Amino acid sequence: xxxxxxxxxxxxxxxxxxxxxxxxxxxxxxxxxxxxxxxxxxxxxxxxxxxxxxxxxxxxxxxxxxxxxxxxxxxxxxxxxxxxxxxxxxxxxxxxxxxxxxxxxxxxxxxxxxxxxxxxxxxxxxxxxxxxxxxx
Length: 136
Prior knowledge:
By secondary structure, the chain is mainly α. Helices cover 54% and strands 4% of the residues. The protein has 5 helices and 2 strands, in the order H-H-H-E-E-H-H. The chain has helices at residues 2-9, 15-29, 40-54, 71-89, 94-109, and strands at residues 58-60, 66-68. Helix 1 (2-9) packs antiparallel against helix 2 (15-29), helix 1 packs across helix 4 (71-89) and helix 2 packs across helix 3. The longest helix has 19 residues, at 71-89. It starts with a helix and ends in a 27-residue tail after the last helix.
């Protein structure tokens, strides 16, 4: 997502369009992959969607379709998510790093897996945000 932020903020040709592409591919296409609970990319899409939902930036309207916040607010929110992840990554002690990463992932973004070989148990945000194309 750091690349997406750079595309939005810096003078990149078609940067806003590239930002939208990266965001929407991560948010909507990745979670629609077959067997999403076993797919790393699908998990990143669910994690991003859960984060944005928790910030009021990925919601449903009265008509039913999902609604995204403004690009500027999404960039601001994703920058904070990246900051939190990098803060965890800076932990030098391996056990503390692993504990912090697992706690953040399963305490903030995703449900714990219910069975092997699933990597996670789905998003913490309501699954209907992703529409009927996504099945877990």
